[in-house]
């Protein structure tokens, strides 16, 4: 399979982040999407995602959000944790 020509559609059904204001959700989502896109483009599609293409669930790993982080920083950190879990 030529991974350079793969179209990847990833749906995150539920992401629970405590301590973020409801009005900051869109900023967090944009940062997460932007960072995942960057990682997939620059680092490639992790083998775990290719293998899981027909599965309903893929573990996104875990992450810890520090108090006072901006929604943008949280989104980037969450995306990096997810991508890191998929690269294992």
Rg measurement, Å? 14 Å
Distance between the amino and carboxyl termini: 20 Å
SSE order in H/E notation?
Answer: HHH
Number of DSSP helical runs = 3
Helix-residue proportion: 40-55%
Estimated structural class: mainly alpha
Please tell me what the overall shape is. globular
Residue fraction in strands: under 5%
Domain count, please report it. Answer: 1
Low-pLDDT runs of 5+ residues are none
Give the mean pLDDT: 83
Largest sheet: none
Number of strands: 0
Describe the secondary-structure layout:
Blueprint: H1 25-43, H2 47-51, H3 71-87
Helix pairs in contact: 1-3
Output the keywords.
88 residues, mainly alpha, 47% helix, 0% strand, globular
Characterise the protein shown here.
This protein is an all-alpha fold and about 90 residues long. The chain has one domain (about 25-85). The chain is about 45% helix and about 0% strand. It is built from three helices and no strands. It has helices at about 25-45, 45-50, 70-85. Helix 1 (about 25-45) packs parallel to helix 3. The two termini are about 20 Å apart. The mean pLDDT is about 85.
């Amino acid at each position: 399979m030529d991974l350079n020509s793969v179209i990847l559609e990833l749906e995150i059904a539920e992401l629970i982040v405590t301590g973020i204001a409801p009005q900051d959700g869109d900023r967090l989502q944009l940062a997460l999407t932007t960072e995942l896109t960057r990682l997939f483009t620059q680092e490639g599609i992790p083998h775990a995602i290719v293998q899981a293409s027909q599965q309903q669930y893929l573990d996104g790993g875990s992450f810890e959000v520090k108090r006072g982080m901006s929604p943008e920083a949280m989104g980037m950190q969450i995306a990096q944790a997810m991508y890191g879990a998929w690269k294992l």
